[in-house]
Amino acid sequence: MTTTRGISTDLSIHAQTELLEGNRVELTIPELPNLPVGTKLEVFVIIPQSPSPTKLSVFEMLQQAPPVNTFQTAEAVDQYLSDERGTWDK
Question: Which of 11, 24, 31, 45 could share a disulfide with 20, CB 3.0–4.6 Å?
Fold first, then answer.
């Protein structure tokens, strides 16, 4: 709490964190004034409408990609291309 011109105002600090196991939230906020341990604080939790996408490694993205045609022989490739060309005029 700060005092401006004799008027007491609350201090607001914006911080972001991730949800921990067991629905726990942990915050480290260096901007907090030097308060005694046990001081009561109010915390508001805002859950975004659409959570941020999880960052995946390239390997993980490739694992999630849909399967692609894998050909065992050159003849199999030729057959596939021939079949595809056959659909072009239809």
Answer: 24
